[in-house]
Amino acid sequence: MAHTPNINFTVDDAPLLVPTASTETSIKNKNEERRIFRNIIVICIAFMFLFTAFSSVSMLQSSINKVEGTTSLATLYMSMVLSGIFLPTWLIKKFNAKWTMCFSMLCYSTYIAAQFYPRDWTLIPTSLVLGLGAAPLWAAKCSYFTQIAGRYAVLVGETTEIIVIRFFGTFFFFFHATRVFGYVFSSVVLSPGVEKHETRIEEALKVCGVNFCPSTHTSPNTNVTNLAMPPMSKIYTLTATYLVLALLAPVVVALFVDPLSRLGKYEHTDASRGESGWDMVMATFRIMTHPYQLLIFPLALWSGIEQGFVGADFTAAYVTCGLGVHMVGILMMVEAVSNGVWSITFSPLVKRFGRFSVFTFSAIVNYGIIVVQRYWMPRPDDINIFYVMAFLWGAMDAVWQTQVNALYGVLFPEETEAAFSCYRVGQSLGYIITFVLSSTTCMWVKLRIMEFSLLFGMVCYYTFEVTERTGGLKRGSDGKVESISRLIKDKLILVSYSLGLHSENRIYFRYCLYLCTLASLLAGCYVFAQLNYS
Question: What is 25-258+280-471's CATH superfamily?
Fold first, then answer.
């Protein structure tokens, strides 16, 4: 019988797997990738807390605080325009993106706290404070996302543009979920008890849709139900809950968000760059005169106009007038859900079909919606059309918010703070235009303005795309595209030389052209006002 040797391996005999440098690098990159994405999610959650509170409070202003509430909202957006010009770049360079987000979030809590005693002298000052903090908050968030997107793109092997779109899509998914949470909570607490089966008479429906005018909004013939003032105890419950959420947001950012320096991105301060505070403020003005910024600025303006239109005019002229006020929240939830879902869906679509195709498709669909609203008279038995319209408005808004944000980040990767400040200025101006027209202008005029702003924005966007695909614009000795003011000045100098003007006369000639341009703009505004009120 053959002897079988008894071979026993001990632990010491086992071959050792020594990690190689490539293995360690791979593990390190995976950890960094997860850390970056964790920071994105944490910021999204903080914004979800903050805007669940603010969106709900702002939505209820016209119902609860009447004149004081709507005046405070107008003040808020005007303050945001001024803030967007002067503050974001300076604050972000001084305190970095993380702490700018924290400080700016605290500004929102002042306006929410004012709801405990809503008067002109409490709402107006706090809306100014909120507006001053809003633009730096959004600029800091966009700057943070754009800067770490470059590093994340290297780790996962994607282009920076695709990663920027993916980050913004994830953010807006969370952001639009806040409107759903806010409305559900508000409706549960307030429980207004509005009759959900009102009888709509034909005479009332004739002033809905394109025939809707603010002057007929309070007429008895419109059959529009006004929300009664809820008990103060319920308002205090809402305000206290929202204030806690608003204060929780900066705490989450302060405790759980890493500064960019910890993620491998060097955050330049004003001292390290050798820039004064005034230099950083002027950076926003320099970006504003950048030819590419001027070409995509109309899309930022359009983004604010269409969002304001859906929230103020579509709900009043179509939903409230055609169905009843009790349907506003339900349809706005449909719009918000559609917006959130499509925000994360358009990232792979842009990767597959390209930015140009997605912008064109969205413009066609949006123009189609506007045309339908010009000819469609809303009726209670058209409930399916209402849902489709709300769904499409949400889907198209997802395109404008995610793609225009991403476009600014891709075009100005080294000047993200100033670039996103310009974006917020444009969007805030769009809100202001819509808010002012909402209470003074009939629906058919608003729809014409919507058509014009969309067409103008797309013409400017196509001009940008054609310019880029045919070699781009003239660049200076530093390799950067020259500002429009520099280009215009050079052209005026050539013209003045060809006319044989002396140096002093050339200055007068240039100022005369500027004054003529300004006079033309004022004349255009005057003609529009006369046509509107004739």
Answer: MFS general substrate transporter like domains (1.20.1250.20)
